[in-house]
């Protein structure tokens, strides 16, 4: 799991620090989709385990968190659309221009 989180963070960082880099954007989107597919596999595996009967509260808590699937529950085409829209919204938000406080009509 930590390998996926590291891979996702690195791809996201590469894209976020250079929003004009289309290659970094595509890689970031693909890593997000791959991670969601991995999360779905983990979720399916957790469904086969009765983790609520475990004695370790820490392990139960971790498995409960992993049991929340999130966007990984989306079908592949919807997941791809979601990822692209999320990336586009991030780019728009990150490149927004703000007027200086002293000159509200600057833009």
UniProtKB/TrEMBL annotation:
<dbReference type="Pfam" id="PF01401">
    <property type="entry name" value="Peptidase_M2"/>
</dbReference>
<dbReference type="InterPro" id="IPR001548">
    <property type="entry name" value="Peptidase_M2"/>
</dbReference>
<keyword id="KW-0325">Glycoprotein</keyword>
<dbReference type="GO" id="GO:0005886">
    <property type="term" value="C:plasma membrane"/>
</dbReference>
<keyword id="KW-0732">Signal</keyword>
<comment type="similarity">
    <text>Belongs to the peptidase M2 family.</text>
</comment>
<feature type="glycosylation site" description="N-linked (GlcNAc...) (complex) asparagine">
    <location>
        <position position="37"/>
    </location>
</feature>
<keyword id="KW-1015">Disulfide bond</keyword>
<protein>
    <submittedName>
        <fullName>Angiotensin-converting enzyme 2</fullName>
    </submittedName>
</protein>
<dbReference type="GO" id="GO:0006508">
    <property type="term" value="P:proteolysis"/>
</dbReference>
<dbReference type="GO" id="GO:0008237">
    <property type="term" value="F:metallopeptidase activity"/>
</dbReference>
<dbReference type="GO" id="GO:0008241">
    <property type="term" value="F:peptidyl-dipeptidase activity"/>
</dbReference>
């Amino acid at each position: 799991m930590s390998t996926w989180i590291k891979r996702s963070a690195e791809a996201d960082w590469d894209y976020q620090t250079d929003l004009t880099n289309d290659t970094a954007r595509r890689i970031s989107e693909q890593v997000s989709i791959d991670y969601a597919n991995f999360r779905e596999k983990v979720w399916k595996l957790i469904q086969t385990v009765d983790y609520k009967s475990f004695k370790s509260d820490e392990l139960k808590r971790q498995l409960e968190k992993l049991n929340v699937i999130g966007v990984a529950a989306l079908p592949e085409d919807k997941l791809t659309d979601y990822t692209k829209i999320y990336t586009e919204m991030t780019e728009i938000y990150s490149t927004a221009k703000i007027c200086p406080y002293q000159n509200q009509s600057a833009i």
